[in-house]
Design brief:
By secondary structure, the protein is mainly beta. Helices cover about 5% and strands about 35% of the residues. The chain has a 5-stranded antiparallel sheet, with no helix packed on it. A 3-stranded antiparallel sheet has the order 2-1-3. β1 and β2 form a beta hairpin. The longest helix has 10 residues. The protein is globular and about 45 Å long.
Length: about 130
């Protein structure tokens, strides 16, 4: 789990309380930044603000993990689908795809943020296939 500090506190709080993904935006160069940082990696500016993600994106890459699945994830089955999601906001992030048969997951598929999975009380951003009912 991530260690909470002054840089990522707002993002982690949004996950915990609202199931919302916040992304940093640089006021100087308008870069969208993920993971939270003290300075913009594009222009080194320090005027960063948090804004909610659109919550949608597409799968760039994925892998189905069949072995060594942590007990915290066993409630969702014996396998975990890890993916790199290119968010519509810009940044890519490594996440899990939930609520789908692994045979239905594919590169290029549209996904949406899913507020429903937690680990030891800390919500982490996970996605589900767009149009999936769960």
């Amino acid at each position: 789990m991530p260690t909470e500090d002054s840089v990522n506190r707002a993002m982690l709080e949004a996950w915990r309380t609202r199931g919302e993904l916040l992304l940093q935006h640089c006021a100087a160069c308008e870069a969208v930044i993920y993971y939270p940082r003290k300075r913009c990696p594009s222009c080194l500016g320090g005027r960063l603000e948090n804004r909610p993600s659109t919550g949608e994106g597409r799968i760039v890459s994925f892998s189905v993990v069949h072995r060594g699945v942590d007990e915290a994830f066993r409630q969702q089955g014996d396998t975990v689908t890890l993916a790199v999601v290119q968010t519509d906001d810009g940044p890519q992030l490594v996440t899990r795809i939930v609520g789908a048969d692994q045979g239905n997951v594919g590169i290029g598929q549209r996904v949406t943020l899913f507020d429903g999975a937690s680990r030891e009380g800390l919500r982490l951003p996970v996605y589900r296939l767009l149009g999936a009912s769960r």
